[in-house]
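In the current project phase, the collection of sequences with tokenised folds has grown. A representative record is quoted in full directly below:
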Amino acid sequence: MTLYTFARDSEGKSACNGQCATNWPPLMAPDSAKAMGGYSVVTRDDGKKQWAYKGAPLYYWAKDAKAGDRTGDGMLNGAWKLARP
């Protein structure tokens, strides 16, 4: 599924919690996850782990129905963008 970043996040910190995380589910990481390459692990407000790329936490968009959908790109006045390497 397509991954997104959120402009309101700060490096290494998710600002998407509560209802936001229901609409934009985080790309969760297991507790044992370790940073590799450009990928790192951030700790969410609830203590759970989330993958990040180059410091930007990664999310799915709940309304993307199938692989390749990108319906969340540009939402909320451009705050949500496709994650790009």
